[in-house]
Design goal:
Elements (H helix, E strand, L loop, with lengths): L8 H12 L7 H12 L5 H21 L11
């Protein structure tokens, strides 16, 4: 008999998500949101879309509140 360890789907997904940590090609906040939803057992299509939308809104707000290059405060 073969002595291979058979992992559950949960373990496979957890290892996959963990393996992506530190990957500079993946947005860290997005990965954290997916990981948190998965770990808490709340990962669903709807919750994922809501989490990603919240991240998008936050990123847009942050981008809009950050002065762009060439903008010098008090240089009007």
């Amino acid at each position: 008999m073969d002595s291979k360890i058979i992992k559950s789907g949960f373990e496979v997904v957890r290892e996959f998500l963990d393996s992506l940590r530190g990957d500079k090609t993946i947005d860290a906040d997005t990965l954290a949101a997916v990981h948190d939803l998965f770990e808490t057992g709340k990962l669903s299509r709807t919750r994922l879309l809501v989490a990603l939308e919240a991240l998008r809104v936050s990123a847009i707000a942050q981008r809009n509140s950050t002065p762009s290059e060439g903008d010098v405060p008090g240089d009007d």
